[in-house]
Amino acid sequence: MIHLKDKVCIITGGAASIGLEISKKLIDLGCKVAIAARSPEKGKKAEASLGKNALYIKTDIGVDEDCKNLIEKTIEAFGKIDVLINNACSYGDEGAKTTREVWLQTLNINAVSVAILGEMARPHLKASKGNIINIGSVSGVFPHIERWAYPVSKAAMLHLTKTQAVEYAQDKIRVNMIRLGHIWSDPFEGLTGDDRAHANKVSEPYNLMNRVADGEEVANTVAFVASSAASYMTGCETVVDGGYSAMGPEGHTPLFPLLAK
What we know:
A 7-stranded parallel beta sheet has the order 3-2-1-4-5-6-7, sandwiched between helices. The chain is globular. Helices cover about 45% and strands about 15% of the residues. Strand 1 (about 10), helix 1 and strand 2 form a beta-alpha-beta unit. The protein has about 260 residues and is an alpha/beta fold. The termini are far apart.
């Protein structure tokens, strides 16, 4: 049973796509949610749709002052912090030709800012015996052709998650990663022209469920890991990838029948 009633959660990138689905789930479970996002338009729309237990705080997590303001405003509004969900992400990547500027921006958002925000939230999470959830990607474990900066940044986040777990254990703060595969989200919607059937068809060879996942399927897992039901989990990866990580190079296709003449 997932118990999160009256917990206070911060979610970065919580106003759209997967982040919005997570925000909705947490609100449904009785949480108070501080939504950190750069876009006032999306942030205010999310706040209005989610009701009185949602608070939008304009935040660029790549800016220290914005991160400090996020923590302060959350405490001012809700009095504590129980869960920090690092969901905001930069997809900046030009493969082998990625410029230094894009490299640094991608690493800054996807790894460095996660570390800094976690440390800022640490005293409050210590007080509540709370936890941190970092949203990772299969890209951080498996190389992807023509993608360099994003996968490397997610690999850095994975190691950071384990480092935070070891460091923060003394404060009774759990730190875990949820590793995502192909999820119906803004990048998928944009690339396919909002064609979910096409996304499923393209994704089919890469996972065992033959489709992309819904954001709610991610949100369900986030809620579990955030709750006391996962009280003995820290430094872990919980994988939501439809079996992507389980498959080897042969994928869905048995080799021997192809070899037989």
